[in-house]
Amino acid sequence: MTDIARGRGRTGDVELGAVPEVAALGNTLTDLFKGLGVTQAAYAARIHVDKSAVSRYLAGRRVPPQAFVDQLFTEITRHRGVSVQEHVKEAVRQQRLDALRVTNPDAYELDSLRAELDRSNRETYRTGLLIESLTDALEKKQREVEDLTGDLARQQIDWAAERRESADRYVRLREEHDAGDAAREELLRHIEGLRSQLAEALRQRDRAVEHGQELRGRVLSLEEELAGRQGYDVPDLPALEEIQELLRELWRAGDHAGAVRELVTAAHARPLADVLVLIDWLPAAAAGQLVADSARMRPVPDVLAVGAHPGVADSAKNQTALIEGLAARLSPAELARVCGAWAALPGDAAGLADRTLAAAVRGTASLGGAREVLAPVAEAHQGTFTPRATGRALAVAFGKTSVLDTVLMVLELQWPALIRWVTEVDRLPIGIRPSSRFLPGLLDLGPETRVAVVRAMAAHASMRSSEQFAQELYGEPGHERRAEGRVLLEGFLEAGEAAREGFARELRSQTYSAQLKKVVSRWSSARPTNRP
After folding, report:
1. How far apart are CA 478 and CA 382, in angstroms?
2. Do 252 and 258 touch, CB atoms closer than 8 A?
3. Whole-structure pTM value
4. Which of 490, 425, 439 is nearest to 469 (CA)?
5. Count of CB atoms within 10 A of residue 233's CB?
6. Can you tell me the distance from the alpha carbon of 472 to that of 488, in angstroms, rounded to the nearest whole number?
7. Burial degree of 93 (CB within 10 A; 0-12, 13-18, 19+)
8. Measured distance CA(160)–CA(174) in Å, rounded
9. What is the C-alpha to C-alpha distance for residues 319 and 313, in angstroms, rounded to an integer?
10. Which of 108, 242, 329, 332 is the residue whose CA sits 20 to 30 A from 368?
11. 29: which residues sit within 8 A by CB, 6+ positions away?
12. Which residues contact 299 (CB under 8 A, 6 or more apart)?
């Protein structure tokens, strides 16, 4: 936390418009609002906000949430057909922060951090576009150099052939060669300049990413600190029983928009205990919306408590709403930390931990990124939940292109329970011969790694996936490395029988391949009864 004074502007002062910064913000918003050509009541109905709240914001008696300001920009853009200029948006955002600074320092600090994080994310995005542009330009110039180098080589050949025939021809070819050589040198200088620019752009991106990660950490830390305070940004609220009665009346009157507004307010402003009571009391659809809004707006410790609440932990729909709300605000690494927190809780939070980790995996762009997300959870919490959803997310995101690499990553993390779900999702229909998903890469591995993969598959893959893996190890007639695959197949049968009694018998009953049935039968017959 910073050293900003923790005093608050008095609510009465704000309501009377006695705080100059709030009044100035209201004047600016009113000037922008006039361009829409609608009444305040009509606008309030359009954006599903109470008309009295719109009146207070425009009159400078209350500081509106940033979402209200952003929605106003959106409506102005839609009405005029032209976007509000960025410097105007930035000026209004700063004016709002100035108003918060004197009325609610806590909210000012948090919103300032969030604004800085948004700017950092935009800078990261712009730098990414620059990197793409420079990379394309560099590749284009390199192709030009390659083409020009080929032309120069051909000119050298023509030069040698024509030099003997004609002096004039020799002079012309020499001039063309010199001109081409000069153009090539110029292209090489241009390429060197592009490489320098690209290196600087990559450094800028890395700095922006690092700054963004630091800001996200500070935002989360501040949210957690404010969550532990009493009375943070909580307006005077009616009793919970009054809210429940109001919701009944709104639903009876068909005013669903009004009910949604009350639930959004509850998700953001009411005490956590009230939110948990409402989750149990509300109809399923409304409860799911309240859970999602709570995940988006409440501090992370509150969200963890919501996830551990039986009304969420025991409902797949509420779990989905919670995870989607969190995924909209947290990075994959932060989602993984939340997963770890749920996995460590007693009770039935294991399914929620698994689905949260799956959402984190889906948010990564590479297998390396997925490994960074999974590693801390694998080290501390892998034994506390079954990674069914996580394994399926891995299979869908990366297993389709490289099942073997995904399995190797899982083994590196020492989390073999994931193998079942990684391979199960990608299994083929019964009776379809598998393509070479494993064997080519498997045979190129070192002997120890190769054996580790075979043993892990035997111990942890489902029988259907095991049958397809065995069929691939059996190989196709005429394959140049079929003999190596047959050796691995024997090792697979050994490891499977050691891990699961009756493995070979069940594998034989699963397969539709007559050849594989014979191989397994011969192996079983030759296997001594006292063999371990």
Report:
1. 43
2. no
3. 0.54
4. 439
5. 13
6. 10
7. middle
8. 11
9. 7
10. 329
11. 57, 58, 64, 69, 72, 92
12. 223, 224, 226, 227
Sequence letter at residue 60: G
Based on C-alpha coordinates, what's the Rg of the chain? 33
Per residue of the chain (532 residues), give pLDDT as tens: 333 333 334 443 444 446 788 888 889 999 888 888 888 888 887 777 677 778 888 888 888 888 788 888 888 888 887 888 888 888 888 888 888 888 877 677 766 666 666 666 666 666 766 666 767 666 776 676 666 666 656 666 665 555 545 555 555 656 665 666 666 676 666 667 666 776 676 677 666 667 666 666 666 666 556 555 544 444 456 778 888 888 888 888 888 888 888 888 888 778 888 889 999 999 988 999 899 888 888 888 888 888 888 888 788 888 888 888 888 777 888 888 888 888 877 666 678 888 888 988 888 888 888 898 898 888 888 778 888 899 888 888 887 668 888 889 989 988 888 888 888 755 555 555 556 677 778 888 888 998 999 999 999 988 888 888 888 888 776 666 778 888 888 999 999 999 888 898 998 888 888 888 898 899 988 876 544 4
Tokens of 438: 């494993």
